[in-house]
């Protein structure tokens, strides 16, 4: 039976669909072609408009006063939307950079911005490359076969973020578990529980950890990002506990989980496209382009939501004040109007105007760091890689927000 537009729209609210690239892109391709701004009414969810074309997503991102993050920055069930609404009214909801709008967004973003500028990234690069070597060495120690996601990809970027924040390696397992529970709330293997209360408990655990960190850095400031956040002031006053913890959460989670998804998805793409792997090994100068192609191909952030602050139109479709819009980044990054042969993995793709980091005022703060990490890892791996192949079935994470592969069994040979 052929897929209907209604089925395609509802697929965007089904976490299992995001674990299956074929199903996801079948739905997104139909929506782009037939109804790029599509009204979705999915069981258990409040209605929303699915925005699937690259140009329309950029238009929404440009008009950040007309289309705002609050009160529904991410796709969630109607039950969780209501819980979040009540917590917002009580001043107890998460306020990360992806939850808030100007003027608060501009002020809070500036707190950590210097840590992600080119000069700071150059200073961090030697540490990134040291860690990349450590994890390629670890692949060699594993004897030619591993689950690349679980044993390598999730660990390398987390170590980078721990270094940036100045957190001890002894906190590694705790950060990894909390991050996977936060982003894997819809995945049977990663979720802590299924109720809204159980999902919120993960945030409470994050807050408890970062409350202790804030107190420690205020008592004894150090030269790291954690100390910058803890001691930041807005209008002469320190950040409150909620804003401080929220800042840590976005850095400590999105700062590594998205990159690990790109590294794992990038290796999978190279395994599945041996001609492109050979091309990249023959011409290492292609690596910057290959990194952006891996980012486009995997698109770890699946969506953000925006809410219209006034009546308007998008691609001729009337949008009412208060309507919610889902910006589908995997769809934008396969848009036939923007990318030649968009379903081909091309390590030399140029130009590559992907939207995996968003666009406009909410462009990803850590984009430069993510590119450095992915590049450093593959520049360390590929010169030593003799052969690589799948050793089992890759498996994706069930999610509607952030995710990628959770299993990638590979068999390989390494030199050195």
TrEMBL record:
One of its GO terms (molecular function) is cholest-4-en-3-one 26-monooxygenase activity. Keywords: Heme, Iron, Metal-binding, Monooxygenase, Oxidoreductase. InterPro entries: Cyt_P450 (IPR001128), Cyt_P450_B (IPR002397), Cyt_P450_CS (IPR017972), Cyt_P450_sf (IPR036396). Pfam families: p450 (PF00067). Its EC number is 1.14.-.-. GO terms for biological process: cholesterol catabolic process. Coiled coil: none annotated. Belongs to the cytochrome P450 family. This is Cytochrome P450-terp. It comes from Actinomadura rubteroloni.
